[in-house]
Amino acid sequence: MLSLLHTYITVYKLRSFSKAAAVLYISQPTVSVHIKKLEQLTETPLFLRNDDKSITPTEFGDILYPQAQNIIKNWDNTIIDLDKKKRSRKSITLLLSHSISELYFKNFIPKLILNFPHIDFTFLVKNSTEIMQLVTEDSSVIGLIEEPTNRIDFYEVKLFEDGLIHVGNPTSPYWITREWDYSLHELSQVYWNLHHLKFNEIATNNLSFLFKLVANDIGQTLTSKKALDSLPKIQWQETSLARDFTLISKKNPLKNTNLALLITFLIEEFKNNTHIEENNSRLNKS
Question: Residue 172's pLDDT is what?
Fold first, then answer.
């Protein structure tokens, strides 16, 4: 249809089939076919063929001309709008707990960026309490935290269970706590009571700094078993304690939205990586 209208507009302007053919780089018979098809579709004669081979638009042709121009213009604008939409980039903020950002970065961040090239990501590292507050205020963000919330106003999914180990110099009188991590602090209290332990405390809000302390034989602490990747030579022992790393958002996102696709990706990635690490752990033990 658009090619017919383009031909018609050109013929109307030039009042000549042959001149229109030259301008459009098509044959004159093709021009004649286009005009004939358009006349059949509209069921009206659009041009009068004169004896001297000149043409004159009919009254119907005069009516169609501006309408044809509008159709072409609207179509062109539609294509531009669609192209802008396809090229427009979305922005999503991912709120990460300190442990997830430090210990699980390579498990999903590079692949996340690779699989969502049309999204501009903002990664903010916060403690779990701060993340819950930000998710409460903004339905367009996703939070990855170190504990379940059990809040009815959240969409919440358990990503995996993070096993905890006791690391550090067993003769050190210091226990290192992360002052912003209430859940881990609470688990430490449970662990102390279970084993009748008592320590002087060192507090820090930085996980990397905590690892540096432990690596330099300053203090003991509970941390994710995943931390052994960063502390390969450290003394450690298993515990029966664990915490649930959890994904939260303000509401269950609509299907096939960027947010929904992103959440599905994160759930699957953590599930797959957990299975891989469990299998590797079994192989190492055997």
Answer: 92
> How many Cα atoms occupy the beta-carbon half-sphere of 71 within 13 Å?
13
DSSP labels, 161-219 = EEEEEEEE-TT-SEEEEETT-HHHHHHHHHHHHHHT---EEEEES-HHHHHHHHHTT--
214 and 237 in a single domain? The answer is yes
Range 72-93 burial, b when 16+ CB lie within 10 A, else e: eeeeeeeeeeeeeeeeeeeebb
Report yes or no: 265 and 115 within 8 Å, Cβ to Cβ: yes
Q: Which residues lie below 8 Å from residue 24, measured CB to CB, with a gap of 6+? A: 6, 7, 10, 31
- Which residue, 42, 62, 87, sits at the end of a domain? 87
Overall domain count for the chain: 2
DSSP string, 7-56: HHHHHHHHT-HHHHHHHHTS-HHHHHHHHHHHHHHHTS--EEE-TTS-EE
Q: Give me the residue label for tokens 């009206």.
A: 44
Q: What is the pLDDT of residues 16-42, one digit of tens each?
A: 888 888 888 899 899 888 889 888 988
Model confidence pLDDT, tens digit, residues 173-207: 999 988 666 678 888 888 999 888 889 999 988 88
Structure-block tokens of residue 151:
């809040």
DSSP class of residue 150 equals: -
